[in-house]
Amino acid sequence: LLPVQGVLRAATKFVDMLSGKGQTVSGRACSRSQGQAAASGACLRPVGHVTSQELFCSTWSSSRAQSSAASRPVRRSQVSVQAVAAAPAPVTTRALPLPGSNAAGLNVVYKFGGSSVRDAERMKEVADIICSFPEYLPVVVLSAMGKSTNYLLECGDLALRTSTDDIADLPPFQSLRQLHMDACEQLQIEPAVKAEVDKLLNELRQLLIGISIMQDLTPRAKDSLVSFGERMSTRILASYLRVQGVPARQYDAWDLGLTTTDDFTNADVNYESLPRIKASLTARHENREVPIVTGFLGRGQLTGAITTLGRGGSDLSATVLGAALELEEVQVWKDVDGVLTSDPRLVAAARPVTELTFEEATELAYFGAQVLHPQAMQPAIRAGGMGVRVKNSYNRNAPGTIITSTRDMSKVLVTSIVLKNNVTLVDIISTRMMGQYGFLATVFEAFRSHKLSVDVVATSEVSVSMTLDPKKMASDLESELMGLKADLGKIAKVSYRNDLAIVSLICNVQRTSKILVKVFDVLDVMGINVLMMSQGASKTNISLVIEGADGKRAVQALHAKFFESDLQN
Q1: Beta carbons of 260 and 298 less than 8 angstroms apart
Q2: Residue 266 CB: number of other CB atoms within 10 A?
Q3: Are 254 and 299 in contact (CB under 8 A)?
Q4: 154 Cβ contact partners less than 8 Å away, ≥ 6 residues apart
Q5: DSSP conformational letter for 114
Q6: Inter-residue contact 505 to 540 (CB < 8 Å)
Q7: How far apart are alpha carbons 314 and 64 in whole angstroms?
Q8: Residue-wise pLDDT tens digits, 403-416
Q9: 50 pairs with which residues across the strands?
Q10: How far is CA 450 from CA 267, 268, 498, in A?
Q11: Over the stretch 219-272, which tens digit does the pLDDT of each residue have?
Q12: How far is Cα 558 from Cα 545, in angstroms, rounded to an integer?
């Protein structure tokens, strides 16, 4: 038995912990068995109602547990099991209405980005949105919480120069743990799920130790590394919904059958997996559970390893699930009121666009808009009749932007203006092009061999100019460009320029003359020279290559001309 002094000291600490007006004592205030705690009704009680018997019981049990634990070793595998077994069952009183009360079955996909679930309070708001529309029973696709993906990438970089003993102390790892443990506590999620989140954090630590030992962060390891964000966020939200009385089930995307190519860090979806996804989601239809699915992730169809769809790939995950279920609409919930006329960080007067076509939305994504993933429209285009609506999780009543296959363009001049920075322009000049076939094939084969992704192209009889996609450049761009010059130097003169920008006008190209008159009038007044111009084959985009230093003021001036003046559209 413990000395009486030890019990008194522990009791004093317990009283100090409870001091203060308005505080409450959870079910752990008395560490008797769950059945006894439930029978006594001690799950939640004002401090003033704590009895001396309960106080002694809690202090005695806590002290005895500490003494017992100190006297015998406990294996790590036992810890989480014991923690789950000893924790009180969650409150199951329904606090949120059941979603889809007027829906026959799963009829929409909601996707929520990282800013929408950045902390526990935002997760509560997302849960409320999920349950606010009786006409919708959703499949929910979730991104990682807040800055989790950035933290994970920082962990990987730091692990390469950190000893294995210090991995757990890495600041981004500690921030990640704190973020998710705080969310678990504040949302009062199920003990078993909290233990699962803690297990994932331990797995993450082991992976970082492996990176530290191997002194290598391969693309495959990086995909596994960043997957922890979505895997934890989905488990936490699904548990919170269940605690609130809403049936919900968490799925890693590969549990549903989502497979991809084995191009780690930028995989493509295997569309042959869509029937498996549909079968997996509809199998539990009778339970009316809300599926909570990891965005951004899949499994390689050859390696079986975790793959990612590139940054922002959760949008693509959502439209893939919508196409698999043959739904009418997918809703992508962001932190803005839909797709805007320009980046609000550049143009304060940017405003929502009410409707877009898939072609317009795809061009917007490729040329710099941060609202949608560049490939997110492809599943919707393949599906035919499915629309994608971009909504604001901070302003749920805003109509957002609906994206469909067609719309009336008769009165449209310019829809949106976007900016892409850090662009490299490559000029290839050769008189051998004149009247010859196969020249461009040779040029593009050289770009392929050096893994240089082409963005915008303009050609003439003796030259071809191309910009390189800054998101898909080789890590050592200069060496690749020098290799390109060497390969093509025998047939052409090759030069390149860095630090340029592309200003893209998503517009009605059928009215090109009117658009370009206004564009060049603005640029002439501002003294901005156009280095290259290209009109997309989709007939929805005009791209201008200019000096990078002029990019921001060019966008602001053009936005004022087309959207803020009396001459707009």
Answers
A1: yes
A2: 18
A3: yes
A4: 170, 172
A5: G
A6: no
A7: 48
A8: 998 898 888 999 99
A9: none
A10: 19, 21, 17
A11: 999 999 999 999 999 999 999 999 999 999 999 999 999 999 999 999 999 999
A12: 14
pTM (2 decimals)?
A: 0.74
Which amino acid is located at 49 in the chain?
H
Helices (H), 244-357: 274-282, 314-325
CA torsion 315-320-321-324 (nearest 10°) is 160
Q: Which residues pair with 496 in a beta bridge?
A: 426
The sign of the dihedral angle between the CA atoms of 199, 204, 209, 211 is: positive
**Measured between alpha carbons, how far is 547 from 502 in angstroms, rounded to an integer?**
9
Helix axes 148-159 and 219-243, enclosed angle (nearest 10)? 140
- Give yes or no for a contact between 497 and 424, defined as CB atoms under 8 angstroms apart: yes
Integer Cα distance of 417 and 369 in angstroms: 9
Phi, psi for 435 (deg, rounded to 5)? 70, 10
Numbers of helices and strands, H then E, in the chain: 17, 19
Record the tokens describing residue 468, joined without a space: 């390189």
User: CA 315, CA 525: separation in Å to the nearest integer?
Assistant: 39
Q: Tokens in use for 221?
A: 């390891």
Residue whose C-alpha is closest to residue 379's, from 392, 388, 390: 388
- The two structure tokens encoding residue 398: 């805003």
Rounded-to-5 percentages of helix, strand, coil across the chain: 45, 20, 35
Q: What is the mean pLDDT of the chain?
A: 83
Rounded Cα gap, residues 174 and 168, in angstroms: 7
- DSSP character string of 535-554: E-TTSSEEEEEEEGGGHHHH
- Report d(CA 73, CA 491) in Å as an integer: 74
Torsion of CA 158, 159, 165, 169, to 10 degrees: 40
Per-residue pLDDT of 10-59, as tens digits, reads 434 433 433 333 333 333 333 333 433 333 333 333 333 333 333 333 33
Residue 564, CA atoms < 13 Å, CB-side half-sphere: 15
What does each C-alpha distance from 1 to 14, 30, 64, 530 come to in angstroms?
19, 19, 8, 86
* 2 pLDDT higher than 90: no
Count the residues in the chain. 569
